[in-house]
Structures are given as structure tokens and as C-alpha cells.
Design a protein that fits this description.
alpha+beta; 2 domains; 29% helix; 3-stranded antiparallel β-sheet; elongated; 7 helices; Tetrahydropterin Synthase, Chain A
Length: 264
Amino acid sequence: MAEEENNPAEEQPTEGKAQPTKKDRGAAKLLGGLVGLIATGSALAMMAIPSKVVEPRMTGPFEFAFFAEEDQTDVITNTQDNNFSRYIKFEPTSLVFAYDQAYPTQRRAEQGFIVAMRQAMSRTVLKYELAHIYDHPEEFNEELRQAAEPILFPVCVGDALTSDGQDPQSGLMMGDSQATAGTFRGDFYSHEIKVNSKKGTLQIDGDGPVQSFNGSETNLMVEDRNGKVVYVDVTGLVDDFEGSIRIGVKGRIRRLITGTITAQ
């Protein structure tokens, strides 16, 4: 009897386990290639899409006392009663939102802040009689808030160290009438002013009216698309500066609180 040849290529498959055919192996290679192609495409797509810049947001509310560092923390001022001979006393505080919680305290330390804040609150009180203040406290507090907010959170430009300082990059600064006549109150990180020193033009947010200047203006009015205005000083602009810088307020007063009001 002839002996059977031991041919590995013709060995029988292991019982219960089918061996892959050429067709199966080809499908597996195709599937692996598609998975690799999809993974490579996803990686390239992620590399091609720039990451979204996260715009800073105001945080709060947190409490801020206007005159906390002063010997006299109260506001003492006259009312309309008896030909302005009567007066009230109160200690105002507020709830504020800001990009930086330290900003209100820094602002309070700026030269002229305390005087400006006391004057603004006194002017507001002078509009009222005691009866109206006591009968309509929310209305009174809201008018005080509106008077105080532009002083605590003035419009700032670029990287100026103070509200009336000069942006070191462009040389732009706020103008003479900004505190009394400016109406623009946009958030600092949501708005820009485009400066072109060579052409002598300014524009807010790229869609406001283009304002021309000759370089000698200390109180130049610039409008945004909604007709809100800022006043800027362009006398210190860098001669060849061309670019956009931030402009706007760095916080808001959510609520002003007068606390206990004492009348005399």
C-alpha cells in the first residue's frame, strides 16, 4: 500500500473553525484600508479647522462698596425740601459684573474717581424731595445706578492702564467729552475701533461710519452703526499704526443699594 504524502497545503481545517478564503482576506484588507483612510481624513480635518477663539465673559455678581477705603463711607447731600435745607445720608453699595473682579477696586483708586462719584450721586439726590425718595426707593436707586455706572465702568481703549490713559500700541486715548457726552457703552471684548494713521481714519467694528481726522483733534466724535458715539484724542497716535484695538466698558452695575437712608 502506497504511503500518503504529508502535504501541508492540503491539511483539513480545524474542526469547528473555518479558514478564511481569499475573498474574505481581500474584504478584510479593504475594510482596514477604509478605516485608516477615514481616520487620516478626520485628523487632517481637525488640523485644518482653526480652534474657535473664546471671548472673555463678565463674571458676577459680586459686591462693591463705592467708598470703602474712605474715612467717610456715606454720601451726605441735600434734597429739594425746604429750599434745599434738608439732607440725607446713606452708604451706597452695588452688585456688579466685570471681566476682572479686581477692576472696580483698581478703578476706585484712580485719581478723581471719588470726587466724580460723590458729585454724580449728589446731583441725583438734588432732583428729589424726601417723600419721593422714601415712597419710590427702587426708582431712586435705579437713577443712582445710571449715574454711577459710567464712572465706575467708563469706556476704555486698548491696553491703556487707566480709563483716561493712552493705549501703548496705537497711541489712541479717550477724548475730552467722553465722560459727559459719550453714549457708546458696548462691552470691551465685543467691540473694536479700526485705526489707520496713514489714511487718517477711524471706524468702530468695521461697519460704523468712517471718521476722518488730521491728527490735531483732542475730542473727535466717532459713531458706531447704531449712532452711539465715543470721543477720542488722536494727537498721540503712532504715525504708521494700522490695525484694530479693543474699545468698550469692562463691567456693569447690576444693582445699586442705598441701604438705610437717614434724613435730617
